[in-house]
Amino acid sequence: MTYVVTDNCIMCKYTDCVEVCPVDCFYEGENTLVIHPDECIDCGVCEPECPADAIRPDTEPDMEAWVEFNRTYSEQWPVITRKKDPLPTAEEMDGVTGKLDKYFSPNPGEGD
Questions:
Q1: Cα separation, 39 vs 61, whole angstroms
Q2: What CA–CA distance (Å, rounded) separates 90 from 70?
Q3: Region labeled Disordered — which residues (predicted)?
Q4: Does the predicted TM-score (pTM) go above 0.85?
Q5: How far apart are CA 104 and CA 30, in angstroms?
Q6: Which residues contact 66 (CB under 8 A, 6 or more apart)?
Q7: Which domains does the chain have, with CATH numbers?
Q8: Alpha-carbon gap, residue 75 to 97, rounded angstroms
Q9: Within 10 Å of residue 81's Cβ, how many Cβ atoms?
Q10: What is the pLDDT of residue 112?
């Protein structure tokens, strides 16, 4: 099992989760985060820390595509290990559906 970031994170990018990760498996994109599924140790401490409820276990239905999404971008983006301010759009975009198709940016973030 692994945990993955879903589209709820896009345009919010809260980073409360990265601060508690014991193995530093979060990677930062321009407007979202991902978890490297091969580095995640399945501890689950990140899931309750996410204000946008964007982190899910891969055992939930229909998570296969999110595992591959997280794998793809974690291999392209820089690691992030410290908390940063969320995006200015975080509050208004929290809970908006269909963000992957409408707002996702494949560009890397700054990382640490």
A1: 21
A2: 20
A3: 84-112
A4: yes
A5: 9
A6: 4, 5, 6, 56, 58
A7: 3-82 (3.30.70.20)
A8: 26
A9: 15
A10: 86
The dihedral through the CA atoms of 19, 53, 60, 79 has a sign that is negative
Q: Residue 94, CB half-sphere, CA atoms under 13 Å: how many?
A: 12
Contact assessment for residue 108 and residue 74, using Cβ atoms and an 8 Å cutoff: no
First CA to last CA distance, the chain = 27
What secondary structure does DSSP assign to 26-42, as a single string? EEEBSS-EEE-TTT---
> pLDDT tens digit string along 79-109?
999 999 999 999 999 999 999 999 999 999 9
For 21-74, the pLDDT digits (tens) are 999 999 999 999 999 999 999 999 999 999 999 999 999 999 999 999 999 999
What is the distance between the alpha carbons of residues 56 and 61, in angstroms, rounded to a whole number?
A: 10
pLDDT of 1 higher than 90: no
